[in-house]
Write a structure and sequence with these properties.
Number of domains of chain C: 2
Shape of chain C: globular
Number of helices of chain C: 15
Largest interface: A-C, 23 and 29 residues
Radius of gyration of chain C: 19 Å
Shape of chain B: globular
Strand order of the largest sheet of chain B: 10-7-6-16-29
CATH class of the largest domain in chain B: Alpha Beta
Largest sheet of chain B: 5 strands, parallel
Helix content of chain B: 25-40%
Number of domains of chain B: 4
Order of helices and strands of chain C: HHEHHHHEHHEHEHEHHEHEHEH
Oligomer: heterotrimer
Strand content of chain C: 5-15%
Chain lengths: 105, 642, 308
């Protein structure tokens, strides 16, 4: 079960991600992603929307599947910029691994 | 004099023309149309029997017109689709040939034959139906529509935005209006809103302006606290009785108290309530008015959730959307923090489809066994409008939107949905069978409630949202107008809303002539659509009354005074009050009682025909003799299918 | 799949120590300029970002990584830096074959030729030509990227460099888009083929041009190389998924999952080969990955050079 974290959206802004809430979960990104892997990246973006930090950190490795090819960002109907979201989440996760000061947990 | 000519015409042996339609294969693929024609041509009285690919096409209609003009035929039978579709088309064709449109008879060989039967049986049934129609046609009399004077006056029932819109439009066209409102206030439900979606304009501005126009218009008489007690008459000539009564509902009394305490004057807008135009009656006042048209604008009421439905009635932090709109409008006067019941609201959950789109077997029926299976259409937009107001006004308050489907249809409404996303409203989607569960939050996170849902957007995973307030986007239910339904014999849909004749072709008329629909008494709609409907009903009213008279179908009862003995059986059987009465008259120097028909009131149902011991009453265009002839012909094998 | 955490820390560590992701001194990697005449003064600085030169090293690394992916050895990446000792650094640098190195260095030589033929006023200084740090950015180590980018920028600024001529999409994207955003420094960045001004008529030659994601989508400049080839009489056959909708070659997955990288390149090769015309790439990573996938690929620079 995921519990919604009301503060997570603000936290993510420190990592250059401010478009998660634009997503309306249509799945275009998952359909066009060349990885064809388990609803990637839609699923992880949904967790970011919810602020399900625990799930994101638990499944963090999945973020590095992304090729940064940009197809999802180019085709996203809401300009939610999924590609950049993945990059931002990588930054968030790395900061968490490294225990960098400005990460709030 | 015209009658004399008609009688002479009819004394002659009838010359019946039969016209069989192929309906482009719809009929001819299963019915041997040629054979039907051949058989018809042998029926006594039939002078021509023709077929055509599409009788309703111009060349098809021209066949009929030419035969009538040349004098070849003087009665017309068309065998085609259901009369609903084209009876009027062919009657008009007869008129265009310069003949009486009622010398026409229709046989349905599509819906009743080719669509449901195949092979020889189909052709046989078609032949019998055509033969029966010719038998009836033989006894056809030319008829004239009934003309009734129309009172240049309309009654509008309901003083909400629809009723006032229609009243204003009609008054502008020179029709006198009596506007009746049950409560002490004008403005209806719209007056109880804050801002209207999608434009965001203030409901109070709109209502104030419209009410002022209505109250100041010399052709409009407004009665609040008014309820109809009796209705009789027919299109053009309705007679209504109504009462003004001192208000007795707790809600009305509270509002009046609020008005008095705030020092608001009559005619001034009271926020979230409406406008009280005049003194409230202290005792019952009785009125009677006559009107050509009745316009119903009786409106809706918000669905009231059951106790325990999403925690409603159990947790004080669960409110309906209309309540929330009011609470928020009041809180906004107090500054930057959304404060409700003295508590700061940091997190709001909105739940859609409460009391709408209910599914048998999934949702619980109300105490009368009803489910609201329809979509209330306005709640998605209203909920998102409220969500945007929260996010725009109180950036520190989060909104979580639990929906089944977002239906922000119509101009400018999808934009509200998009803006809600941009405003960081978080959407969670639930399946009807796994609705969100609202629970008391026992955790230490400071939020009194939590909403749990199997969120289909998170691939069905369970998601828990901590909240301060739960807002239920409740649907619309029609106001209870069972007294009017009973009084005026109004048709009601399975959804309990008043029912129009046809949703597309006659969208604001009821099947009772002269009674029209405006606004949400007809179905859930937003204020814009309600005004649309109201203006349409106004136009329809003015076209009905514009000629000064109304024309009714001539298929009404007719008494044969030669035979009538005044038993009164017909009057007793009559379903429509005052359509049939016993009147005194002189016959051969004697005073006798005889039945008399009021053609404008008669439904043409035939109940009187069945009970008359003397066979002294008939329905014009549908006489007993015609019925008998039809039945005889259906079973006359040698003629019909010989 | 390798643990991203281990790979990232490994690469971050290497960039910190040697200025490139491989842990070998940049001098060892960047030797292409020796033995050819290059001006040390001019208008635009040729800035390779070391991508072409690195490919033979990346290739060798991934061959080894691929061998161990999904085996117990994956876990050794973090323990005692098993992989670094074995695969990167000096020891590994020596493993890259000189044949491979010559191939990619040759492409840089072609670029120089093409610029000269187009009369472009350019110069080269190996000490200013550094790795851009793009891999750190892509992997999410934005702090490491910024630190590295600042050191690259300070060297350029010290010499008053304003104009840069890049040769690959990744370095171009880093310098053109990311550097201004993250270091606040803006250079006038042009890719070499934007400066090519050559005409010719190569008859009926047709090629299949593979658009890299960055040129096709991020920078939306696929038309430029097409136009260059057109001027030389070479026709680019239409490819399913090109321009802004081009498909990834799979190269960027190499560092974390060489296996995944293989799957993707197979899919792209099918699309490219269906045209029947020879395949041309303009990114060293695409070039390497497509080659590894078993298709013969020519670099845009050598094609232009041969046909002009």
């Amino acid at each position: 079960m995921a519990t919604v974290d009301l503060e997570f959206a603000e936290q993510l802004e420190h990592f250059g991600v401010d478009t998660a809430s634009e997503c309306f979960n249509c799945g275009t990104c998952a359909a066009i992603c060349p990885l064809i892997y388990e609803h990637f990246p839609r699923k992880i973006i949904r967790y970011a929307q919810l602020g399900a930090k625990d799930v994101i950190l638990r499944e963090a490795d999945e973020l590095w599947r992304c090729l940064h090819c940009g197809l999802c960002t180019y085709t996203c109907p809401r300009e939610a910029n999924p590609g950049e979201l993945i990059l931002g989440l990588r930054r968030y996760v790395i900061a968490n691994w490294r225990g960098t000061a400005h990460v709030q947990t | 004099m015209a009658n004399t000519r008609k009688e002479i015409e009819m004394e002659r042996e009838p010359k019946i023309g039969v016209y069989v339609c192929q309906c482009g294969g719809n009929i001819s693929d299963h019915v041997d149309v040629e054979k039907v024609c051949e058989r018809a041509s042998k029926i006594p009285g039939v002078v021509v029997a023709r077929e055509n690919m599409f009788m309703c096409s111009d060349p098809g209609q021209d066949l009929i017109i030419e035969d009538l003009k040349s004098g070849t035929v003087d009665r017309v039978v068309v065998a085609s689709c259901a009369p609903d579709l084209h009876e009027l088309t062919f009657r008009n064709a007869v008129s265009r040939a310069g003949k009486n449109p009622y010398i026409y008879e229709h046989a349905n060989i599509r819906e009743q034959v080719s669509w449901v039967h195949h092979g020889d049986g189909a052709t046989e049934k078609a032949s019998r139906l055509v033969a029966a129609a010719t038998a009836k046609a033989k006894y056809i009399q030319p008829l004239d529509p009934i003309r009734v004077e129309a009172k240049q006056h309309a009654v509008v029932i309901g003083g909400g935005i629809s009723g006032m819109r229609a009243a204003k439009d009609l008054a502008e066209r020179g029709i006198r209006i009596t506007l009746l409102e049950k409560s002490p206030f004008l403005g209806g439900r719209a007056a109880q809103l804050d801002r209207l979606a999608p434009t965001g304009e203030k409901a109070s501005d709109l209502i104030t302006e419209l009410t002022r126009e209505v109250l100041n218009h010399p052709a409009i008489a407004v009665y609040t606290n008014a309820e109809v007690t009796n209705s009789e008459g027919y299109v053009g000539n309705f007679r209504l009785q109504f009462q003004r009564r001192p208000p007795d509902s707790a809600e009305d009394l509270d509002k009046i108290k609020e008005m008095v305490e705030s020092g608001t004057e009559f005619g001034e807008f009271i926020p979230l309530v409406g406008i009280c135009p005049a003194k409230i009656p202290e005792k019952i006042e009785e009125y009677t008015i006559e009107a050509g048209v009745i316009l119903l604008a009786t409106g809706f009421k918000p669905y009231s959730p059951r106790k325990g439905e999403y925690g409603f009635g159990e947790f004080k932090e669960v409110v309906t959307l209309p309540e929330f709109i009011k609470l928020m409008a009041r809180s906004r006067r107090n500054g930057k923090v959304l404060e409700i019941n003295g508590k700061e609201i940091k997190s709001v959950a909105m739940i859609h489809c409460v009391g709408s789109r209910q599914i048998p077997g999934v949702h619980e029926e109300d105490e009368t066994g009803h489910l609201n299976e329809y979509c209330s259409r306005t709640c998605c937009t209203a909920a998102l409008q409220a969500a945007n107001t929260v996010r725009d006004t109180y950036p520190g308050t989060r909104v979580f939107d639990f929906y089944r489907d977002i239906r922000t249809y119509g101009r400018g409404q999808e934009e509200l949905y998009e803006r809600a996303s941009k405003n960081r409203v978080l959407f969670l989607r639930y399946e009807p069978a796994a609705a969100p569960v609202v629970k008391r939050n026992n955790g230490s996170n400071g939020y009194p409630l939590s909403v749990k849902v199997n969120d289909t957007l998170t691939f069905g995973e369970e998601v828990e949202v901590p909240v301060d307030l739960v807002v239920l986007a409740v649907g619309m239910e029609p106001n209870n107008v069972s007294n009017l339904v009973e009084m005026m014999k109004l048709p009601v849909g399975a959804d309990r809303f008043l029912l129009e004749v046809h949703p597309k072709l006659r969208p604001v008329e009821m099947s009772v002539a002269g009674i029209l629909l405006a606004g949400t008494c007809q179905s859930p709609m937003d204020t814009g659509e309600a005004c649309n409907g109201a203006s349409s009903a106004a136009v329809k009213t003015s076209s009905l009354l514009g000629r000064g008279y109304v024309e009714l179908d001539p298929f009404v009862a007719e008494v044969d005074l030669e035979k009538c003995t005044g038993t009164g059986a017909c009057v007793e059987a009559c379903l429509r009050e005052e359509a049939l009465t016993l009147v005194e008259m002189e016959m051969d120097g004697e005073k006798v009682q005889r039945a008399e028909v009021n053609p404008a009131l008669c439904n043409g149902c035939g109940a009187c025909v069945a009970v008359c011991p003397e066979n002294a009453i008939n329905i014009k265009g549908w006489t007993l003799r015609q019925y008998e002839a039809m039945v005889d012909m259906i079973v006359a094998d040698d003629i019909a299918v010989g | 799949m390798y643990k991203p955490k281990d790979i990232i820390e490994l690469i971050a560590d290497n960039v910190k120590k040697t200025g490139n992701p491989f842990g070998a001194p940049s001098k060892v990697i960047n030797g292409w300029w020796k033995n050819i005449p290059l001006p040390r003064e001019g208008d635009g600085l040729l800035f390779t970002g070391l991508m072409y030169q690195s490919v033979p090293f990346i290739e060798k690394t991934t061959t080894y990584l691929e061998r161990y992916e999904d085996t117990a050895l994956v876990n050794y990446v973090k323990y005692g830096r098993f992989v670094p000792k074995f695969l990167v650094g000096w020891g590994f640098a020596l493993l890259a074959s000189s044949e491979e190195k010559n191939k990619f260095n040759g492409m840089l030589h072609s670029i120089v030729e093409v610029l000269k033929k187009s009369k472009v006023d350019f110069y080269y200084r190996p000490e200013l030509d550094n790795y851009s740090g793009i891999l750190l950015y892509d992997l999410g180590d934005v702090d490491g990227f910024i630190k590295h980018a600042r050191s690259v920028v300070s060297k350029l600024k010290e010499k008053g460099v304003k104009k840069l001529i890049t040769v690959d999409p990744h370095t171009t994207y880093a310098l053109k888009i990311l550097y201004p955003k993250y270091t606040g420094e803006t250079f006038e960045v042009k890719t070499y083929f934007e400066l090519v001004n050559l005409n010719g008529s190569n008859g009926t030659k047709q090629v299949t041009l593979h658009d890299p994601c960055i040129y096709g989508r991020y920078l939306e400049m696929s038309d430029v190389p097409k136009k260059v080839l057109e001027n030389l009489g070479i026709e680019c056959v239409a490819v399913r998924n090109s321009g802004p909708f081009t498909n990834c070659c799979g190269g960027p997955a190499e560092s974390v999952s060489p296996k995944l990288s293989r799957e993707l390149v197979d899919r792209r090769i099918e699309e490219l080969q269906s045209t029947g015309a020879p395949v041309v790439a303009m990114c060293p990573i695409c070039m390497a990955n497509l080659t590894k996938g078993g298709v013969e690929v020519e670099d845009l620079s050598t094609l232009i050079n041969h046909c002009s």
